[in-house]
Amino acid sequence: MDIEENIQVLETAKELILLGLKSKDALHIACAIEGHCDYFLTTDDKVLSILKNYNKITVVNPLNIIVNLKE
């Protein structure tokens, strides 16, 4: 799926930057939200910490996904 730059993506990215994310991380996550992804996988502890209670997308460490799939 290709996500085109649009006002909603840019507004979401700005919101994420205000929460403390770097601009490229914010844009990447905003695109995932625009693409209606259920999860955003990252090993970046800062991103995980900042977005642990974020309600527009679930941000998780991929290792946690693997552990849960094994159970």
Mean pLDDT: 93
Number of helices: 4
Main sheet record: 2 strands, parallel
- Gap from first CA to last CA: 30 Å
Provide the structure class: mainly alpha
Topology order in helix (H) and strand (E) letters: HHEHEH
Topology (elements, then pairings):
Blueprint: H1 7-19, H2 23-34, E1 39-41, H3 45-50, E2 58-60, H4 62-70
Parallel strand pairs: 1-2
Helix pairs in contact: 1-2
Structure in words:
This protein has one domain. The chain contains 4 helices and 2 strands, in the order ααβαβα. The protein has 71 residues and is mainly alpha-helical. Strands 1-2 form a two-stranded parallel ribbon. The protein starts with 6 loop residues before the first helix and ends with a helix. Helix 3 links the parallel strand 1 and strand 2. Helix 1 crosses helix 2. The protein is 56% helix and 8% strand.
Observed structural traits:
single chain; 71 residues; mainly alpha; two-stranded parallel sheet; 4 helices; 2 strands; 56% helix; globular
